[in-house]
Specification:
Length: about 300
């Protein structure tokens, strides 16, 4: 994969990159919240408030990073997140209402809060977070970046010492001592939660509810040694599957045209004029518990 060259202006600010789904949808599930618009709005806003208060002094302003309606990974691998989609159909949770509320709150953030809200139709929040963080390396700025998400895929970005990660669900920092090795292991093992098989298994193994071909540590070590030594692949099949997984998991593999859209979206927002809208919005929505802490959102 060719190295991405970031266009336009360098990012010259520290950032708190918040995975919007990580503080919205995941909390609905883990906390088993009632599907109530006011409750979910309060939960999302309060989570942003708390993380901004915790990290702003060292990491600067909040950037809300959102999943788009489509996903370029589905063009590469149509089975991507297949089970997650089917699980939602069988769930007792009213997902249509959850998405209606979280989409509404996302729009309210755009219109009433002084934070950039970055959403690009073809990609996930993962791509947005990764490439806003990586662009600080391109221009040699190396500003502090805090990623607020529990997603293990972001650990690969810790090859850059200015990029840190905090899990809001686990309430702890995520520290990866060897991010290059961690990424290779992810690529080899795949990610069942996203429907990505290991490198010994075919594309449809999860869709057809079959068991994966076991990938034992001995095989992982053998493949790793071959990759690092430049030896021939174990087989064409696993080499093909390794490249499949790398495209889906390695965040440097986001297509360059989508990276350009991410950067353009970010660069062309100036939300600071919304600063005066926060308190009237909280009053209008009767967010009584947040009104008293309004300074946490704006100062």
């Amino acid at each position: 994969m060719a190295r991405i060259s970031y266009s336009r202006q360098p990012i010259s600010e520290v950032m708190i990159l918040i995975d919007y789904n990580g503080i919205a949808i995941s909390n609905v599930v883990t906390q088993k919240l009632a599907i109530d618009e006011n409750l979910i709005r309060h939960m999302i806003l309060n989570s942003i408030r708390l993380h901004r208060r915790k990290f702003k002094k060292q990491y600067g302003e909040v950037v809300i990073c959102c999943d788009g309606m489509k996903n370029w990974r589905l063009d590469v691998f149509p089975q991507y997140k297949h089970k997650r989609r089917s699980d939602r159909k069988e769930s007792d949770i009213d997902w249509s209402e959850v998405f209606r509320i979280t989409n509404l709150v996302r729009q309210e953030l755009k219109e009433n809060f002084p934070y950039k809200v970055v959403e690009v139709e073809e990609c996930e929040a993962d791509d947005i977070i990764a490439h806003l963080a990586l662009r600080t390396q391109e221009f040699g700025q190396y500003e502090n970046v805090m990623i607020v998400s529990g997603d293990k895929d972001f650990a690969q970005l810790q090859v850059h010492k200015n990029i840190q990660q905090y899990s809001p669900v686990q309430n702890k920092f995520i520290k990866e001592d060897n991010p290059k090795s961690q990424l290779l292991n992810l690529v080899l093992k795949g990610d069942p939660s996203d429907g990505v098989p290991n490198v010994l298994s075919d594309d449809n193994v999860f869709v057809e509810a079959r068991r994966q071909t076991p990938l034992r540590q001995k095989m992982i070590d053998e493949i790793t040694n071959k990759l690092t030594s430049g030896a021939d692949p174990v087989s064409e099949e696993w080499w093909r599957n390794l490249n499949r997984n790398r495209r889906l998991i390695d965040l440097s593999c986001t297509p360059s045209n989508i990276v350009e859209k991410i950067i353009h979206n970010y660069d062309n927002q100036d939300q600071w004029s919304n600063k005066g809208k926060v308190l009237p919005f909280l009053i209008q929505k009767k967010c009584k518990l947040l009104i008293q802490d309004v300074q946490d959102f704006i100062s």
